[in-house]
Amino acid sequence: MHPAFFPPPRRTAAIALLALGASMAAGVQAASAYPNKAITLVIAYPPGGSTDAVGRMVGTELAQRLKQPVVIENLGGAGGAIGAQKVARAPADGYTLLLSANNEMAIAPLINKAIKYRVFQDFTPIGLVATQPMVLVASQASGVKNTQDFLNRLRQNPGKYSYGSSGVGTALHIAGEMVQQAGQVTMTHVPYKGVAPLTNDLLGGSLDFGVFVLSSGLPHIRAGKVVALGTTEAKRSTVTPDIPALAENPAFAKVDINSWFALMGPAQLPPQVLTTLSAALNDTLQSPSFRAKLEASGNVVAVPGQDMGAFLKAQVSKYQQIVETAKIEDR
After folding, report:
1. pLDDT at residue 32, rounded to an integer
2. Which H helix or E strand runs over 230?
3. CATH 3.40.190.150 domain span(s) along the chain
4. pTM value?
5. Residue 76, pLDDT score
6. Model pLDDT, residue 9
7. How many other CB atoms are found less than 10 A from the CB of residue 301?
8. 112 by DSSP, 3-state: which?
9. Interhelix angle 288-296/50-66, nearest 10 degrees
10. Which parts of 38-160 are beta strand (E)?
11. Closest to 170 measured CA to CA, from 134, 126, 203
């Protein structure tokens, strides 16, 4: 082969160093310029639900702060797992993010063996956005008015009554199981395909009890169409101080569970990208207008800078205990 194809060793080393330097410079420039194009925010549920509402508000705020469009992509299915899977497999460049909820992040991997992503290995936690309690309600037809009525009915008639949720393994289902375990009572779980059919049966009186996310149940509670027995956090929500916490009844003293929303990215987001996104989210959480909108829908806005990784580990541990005791499995 012609000698020209074999550069002298010193020249080869110089070329390699130049190439490495150029590559590193390009990487630094790309990171420092982030973001320089539209960001896709995946919401792993259909339009119209509580996660979608929160996600769209977050998207609007991030777009203003990052000076780039934030495109909402609703990708429902498998209790949020399909949307989460897409983000887990996306490039770690900050241009595909997930507005996640507890279903796909903390519950589904515990009960569905078909889920391939690993929560603590395949995602980068960016920050907690908001929490809200769930609320146990009774149909008007049941005649139950408070937690003591509820306990008396169930203890006198074990297994006779039923409660509905938005599906097997959802946060609403887990909350219902926690209520049963704490109160040492038994109900038949009726899983619905979403909140709409659950609501119809509760309002129609063909279902005795149900669990709602507070934002979904509040309009029906305020209209007097269902009876709020109690919210599922340890203390009353600051958004609805007139609705008691279930834990106020000694039988439910250990009931403390909520629904939450968080911003997540694929694993191994570059540090500068993570810093940029975290700063934009923290600024959003301190916006008075953003806080007012979220609180109006039943949410409590998260404290900026909260350790999302530690929060997620604690949530998974709590759900795992309930799932194992109730033997919940998504077939």
Report:
1. 58
2. strand 226-231
3. 33-132+260-326
4. 0.82
5. 87
6. 46
7. 19
8. coil
9. 170
10. 39-43, 70-74, 96-101, 123-139
11. 134
Q: In whole angstroms, what is the distance from residue 202 CA to residue 164 CA?
A: 8
3-state SS class at 198? helix
Name the segment(s) of the chain with CATH classification 3.40.190.10.
133-252
| CA 196-190-200 angle, 5° bins | 25
User: Tokens 């998207």 appear where?
Assistant: 59
Q: Are 93 and 124 in contact (CB under 8 A)?
A: no
pLDDT in tens, 53-79: 999 999 999 999 999 999 999 998 888
User: 42 is written with which tokens?
Assistant: 């995946």
CATH of 33-132+260-326, one of 3.40.50.80, 3.40.50.11540, 3.30.70.100, 3.40.190.150: 3.40.190.150
Structure tokens at 225: 């169409």
- In one-letter notation, the amino acid at residue 144 is V
CA distance 259 to 131: 6
268: DSSP letter? T
Domain 133-252, what fold? Answer: D-Maltodextrin-Binding Protein; domain 2 (3.40.190)
Where do we find the tokens 């000076």? 67
Q: Which of 198, 53, 71 is nearest to 139 (CA)?
A: 198
Q: Which residues of the chain have pLDDT under 70?
A: 1-32, 331
Of 206, 201, 98, the closest CA to residue 161 belongs to: 206
End-to-end CA distance of the chain: 64
Residue 128: how many CB atoms within 10 A of its CB? Answer: 22
Judge contact between 125 and 215, C-beta under 8 A.
no
- Over the stretch 245-265, which tens digit does the pLDDT of each residue have? 999 999 999 999 999 999 999
Interatomic CA distance for residues 246 and 90, integer angstroms: 41
183/252 Cα distance (integer angstroms): 6
Residue-level pLDDT at 94? 98
